[in-house]
Amino acid sequence: MDTLPDHLVWEILGRIKKTVDRNSASLACKRFYEVDNEQRLSLRVGCGLDPVNEALTSLCNRFGNLTKVDISYAGWMSRLGKQLDDQGLLILSNSCPYLTDLTLNYCTFITDVGLCYLASCLNLSALKLKFTTRITGCGILSVVVGCKNLTVLHLIRCLNVNSVEWLEYLGKLERLEDLLIKNCRAIGEGDLIKLGPCWRKLKRLQFEVDVNYRYMKVYDRLAVDRWQKQRVPCENMVELSLKNCIISPGRGLACVLGKCRNLENIHLDMCVGVRDSDIINMAQTSSKLRSISLRVPSDFSLPILMSNPLRLTDESLKALADNCRMLESVRISFSDGEFPSISSFTLDGILTLIQKCPVRELSLDYVYSFNDVGMEALCSAHYLEILELARCQEISDEGLQLACQFPHLSILRLRKCLGVTDDGLKPLVGSHKLDLLAVEDCPQVSERGVQGAARSVSFRQDLSWMY
Length: 467
Fold this sequence. Notes:
Leucine-rich repeat, LRR (right-handed beta-alpha superhelix); 4 domains; FBXL15_LRR
C-alpha cells in the first residue's frame, strides 16, 4: 500500500461507505487516518460525547470538511453525562465552515442563544429540529435571517415555537423547498399562508397538527371562519402530506389542493372537511400523481359538520381514475371502521381506480366494502405487485385463494383479518409465486399455515387487539 499513489488511496477509501468500516480503516496507518480525516463529510454523534464540548471540538478539528452533522440524544438520561448546549453550537459554527445540513434531535438544552450562533453558518441549507423544547420562534427567526440559503426546514414537536414571523421572512426569501412542521402546537393551518411568494418554490410540504389538539381546533368554528380566500401559487409542489388538519371550503389548505400541477405524492390523514370537490379539483390539476394515501375520519358527529355532512364518495375515486393515469400506489383507510351501509367508498369506486390506472401497490385498511368480489376483480389487475389488507373483514378464504391468480403479485400482507384461515393460503404453498408473505394478528391463521407460501415469510400473532 505504501507504493500506491495518493489518488488511488483516496479512491479506495472513498468506496468504503459504512462508518464502522471507515473507523477501522483509519486506524490501520497514519496515511489512511489523514485521508479519512479529509474525506469524512458527515458525522452522527449523541450520548457518547463526554465531556461534550471538548469531544465535539476534537471531532470538528479532526474532520475539517464536515458538511452534515446529526446530533441525537434520543434515550438520554442524566447519568449519561451532560448534553450538548448552546456552547456546542458555537463550536460547530466556528469549526465547520462548510456545514450545510444540521439535525438536532432531543437536544433539550439548546435555546434561542444557540440558534443565534448558527446564523453565522452562511452555507447552511438544511436545518432539522426534533423535540428541541426550549427554542422559540425568535430563535428560528434568527436562523432564517442569517442563513439565507436555507432550503430545508423541519420542525418536529418544537412545543414553544409560538410566533411565526420566521414564516413571513422565509416567504420573502423565496428559497425554501422542503417544509415539515409536525406537532408544533402553536402553529396552525392558517399560518402557512404567510409563506406568500415562497409557495412557488416549495416542493415538499408536510404539516401535522397534534392529535390531542385536533378536536379543540375543530370546535373552534371562528378560527375556520377567519380564514381568507387566497390564491396560492404552488405549481412546483411534488409531495404534500397533511395530518389532522382542517380543510375549509375555498380557503387555506383547500386552495393548495387544486393548484399543484406537478404533484406526485399526496397523503391526507384524518383531515376534517375534505370534500369530493377538493379531490376532484386536485385530480383534474395533478395529472402526474403517482401515489395517494387517504385516511378518512369516521366521526361525522362533530358540531361543525352537522349543518353540512361531509363524506368522500366514489366521485373522488372516479376523478382520480379519469385524470391520474400515472397512479401507481393507492392507500385507503378508515380511522376506526365503517359499516357497509354507510361506507364512503364502494367496491365499484375502488375497482374503477384499479382498472384505469397502473396501480402497482394497493393497501386497504378497515375498508368493509372490499370483499371476495373485489379479490376476484383483482385477477385482471395486470400491474398489481403489492397487496396489503388490514382489518378487511369481508374477505374470506374463497377470496384469498384467488391471490394465486393475480398476474404479477409478489408481496402480500395480511393484518388483523378475521375471515381468513390456513385454507385460504393453501394454493400459495409451494407455488413459488410470492416473494414475501407477511401475516400479522390474524386469529385463524397459524404459523404452520404460512410455511412455504412465499420465498420469504413473516408471521406474528398478538390477539390483544381483539379484547
